[in-house]
Design a protein that fits this description.
The protein contains two helices and eight strands. The protein is of the alpha+beta class.
Length: 241
């Protein structure tokens, strides 16, 4: 009978070690979840603050007290090609609600560009040009500028503001595609190599939220250009229903 005692003792020790390891793993898992949640929340806090400061600086730079308000729209201007990483505009999406702030429009779609705001795909049309103005934004983290992209409805305005004024587009169709279906940002969306005849805009974001498995794509068509001297367009001064 005495020969069973070491085995029983070993079993108790092994069971104790297993219990401790299990508790440590559970604790580690909880800490990782808390850290991940904190990290996701903190990137939003920092990005919201920095993007708001960038937007305010742009508005101050564009303000001209000598401008005399004018009525009506104006011919669509040609914009200068921005440098990589340059903030050259603001993106307004009224459908995203009164608490959503205009986001800086940055030339490029690198990690750093998308942390700074909404990225403009290099080589695609500039606001107001014939072709496809393709822009990308996060749906979560770093201010999640396109978090509500799936809420857009046909006819909703998407407004790109630059030093010259406001380029008003209106949402048309949406779709979900694979990440490799880059033809959605072609000059004629879905038709690589085709010659564009329309002024379009395409918004892209990861889908579903929190993954990069697919892309949510929202297309829009150009409506009109409103010069800065005319004041902000009605789409930005009226409440979206």
């Amino acid at each position: 009978m005495t020969t069973t005692r070491p085995a029983a003792s070993s079993t108790r020790v092994l069971g104790g070690v297993t219990t401790v390891l299990g508790e440590l793993l559970v604790t580690l898992g909880v800490l990782l979840l808390l850290f991940t949640g904190w990290q996701l929340w903190w990137t939003d806090v920092v990005a919201d603050r920095e993007q708001a400061q960038t937007a305010a600086a742009l508005v101050d730079r564009w303000a001209d007290p000598q401008l005399v308000p004018t009525a009506g729209d104006a011919p669509v201007p040609d914009l200068a090609e921005p440098l990589a990483g340059e903030v050259f505009g603001l993106v307004h999406v009224p459908r995203f609600g009164p608490d959503w702030q205009p986001r800086p429009l940055v030339e490029g779609t690198t990690t750093a560009d998308l942390e700074a705001g909404v990225g403009h795909y290099a080589g695609t049309a500039l606001p107001g040009e014939v072709g496809n103005v393709a822009i990308a934004g996060h749906r979560n983290t770093y201010g999640k500028p396109f978090h509500g992209i799936a809420e857009l409805q046909a006819g909703d305005p998407v407004v790109v503001e630059t030093a010259e004024g406001w380029f008003v587009y209106r949402a048309t169709t949406a779709r979900v595609v694979r990440p490799d279906q880059v033809e959605v940002v072609a000059p004629v969306p879905g038709e690589p190599g085709a010659q564009p005849t329309e002024r379009l805009l395409t918004m892209t974001a990861c889908h579903p939220i929190g993954t990069a498995r697919e892309r949510y794509v929202q297309h829009a068509a150009f409506d009109r250009f409103v010069p800065r001297a005319a004041g902000a367009p009605s789409e930005l001064t009226q409440v979206t229903p």
